[in-house]
């Protein structure tokens, strides 16, 4: 994934048997592929395959995907960029779409967001070790450590939630895991941008790519804010909060 992205990576994954893995070992294939997409900064339209397979349809095509605010997008299987937010993603807005299965897609997006968060944290950590102020690396400053620690705690919590939702698939657990992953990515982006300072806002540094990617992925299949509100409504209707994970 470090050498390919977009349509080229899509074709390579297809040759490796991505669709077969998605059918036979989804609990392994989805976390592996989507987390690596996040960690490497690559992209491929394979979210379409997750949705189509969950609906019992053949993969390899596209399907309208729900986006934040009640809107819909299509993730094209080309390299023609149509997204104003992320110049590397071939996303196209459409007026509407049919209801699609959400659970598998939300887990996939959650793993992608976790991978993206870890990529941002790695960039920030490397910067703190290289950047020297007052004769010592800024990694030794308590304020910097606190920001990185808070980001790491958010990432680890989101990953634990995703692991639980992957091992024991459940609508509420999956919804909360996607929300946790989205919130972790936003928290990590905020702290890493502060740690990197001015260079983190420049196009020359890689951080901005991951920040924009996190914003787009958070919006797909419901943003962290929307999903948290939806989870609250589900719990209110049930009248109780089930135990999601056996501690």
Structural overview:
It is a single chain. With 247 residues, this protein is mainly alpha-helical. The chain folds into two domains: 89 residues, no CATH class; 137 residues, Up-down Bundle (Butyryl-CoA Dehydrogenase, subunit A, domain 3), CATH 1.20.140.10. Helix content is 60%, strand content 6%. It contains nine helices and five strands; from the N terminus they run H-H-H-H-E-E-E-H-E-E-H-H-H-H. The chain has a three-stranded antiparallel beta sheet with strand order 1-2-3, with no helix packed on it. A two-stranded antiparallel sheet has the order 4-5. Strand 4 and strand 5 form a beta hairpin. Helix 5 runs antiparallel to helix 6 and helix 5 packs antiparallel against helix 8. The protein is globular. The mean pLDDT is 88.
């Amino acid at each position: 994934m470090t050498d390919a992205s977009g349509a080229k990576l899509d074709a390579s994954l297809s040759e490796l048997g991505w669709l077969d893995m998605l059918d036979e070992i989804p609990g392994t294939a989805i976390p592996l592929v989507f987390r690596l997409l996040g960690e490497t900064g690559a992209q491929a339209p394979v979210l379409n395959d997750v949705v189509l397979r969950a609906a019992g349809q053949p993969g390899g095509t596209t399907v309208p995907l729900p986006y934040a605010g009640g809107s819909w997008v299509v993730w094209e299987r080309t390299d023609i960029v149509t997204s104003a937010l992320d110049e590397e993603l071939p996303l196209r807005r459409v007026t509407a779409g049919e209801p699609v299965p959400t659970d598998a897609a939300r887990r996939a997006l959650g793993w992608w967001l976790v991978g993206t968060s870890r990529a941002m944290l790695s960039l920030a950590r490397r910067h703190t070790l290289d950047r020297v102020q007052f004769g010592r690396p800024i990694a030794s400053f308590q304020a910097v450590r606190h920001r990185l620690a808070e980001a790491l705690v958010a990432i680890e919590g989101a990953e634990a939630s995703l692991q639980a939702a992957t091992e024991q698939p459940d609508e509420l657990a999956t919804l909360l895991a996607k929300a946790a992953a989205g919130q972790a990515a936003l928290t990590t982006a905020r702290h890493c941008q502060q740690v990197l300072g001015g260079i983190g806002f420049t196009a020359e540094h890689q951080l901005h790519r991951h920040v924009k990617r996190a914003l787009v992925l958070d919006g797909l299949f419901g943003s962290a804010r929307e999903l948290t509100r939806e989870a609250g409504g589900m719990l209110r209707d049930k009248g109780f909060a089930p135990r999601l994970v056996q501690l």
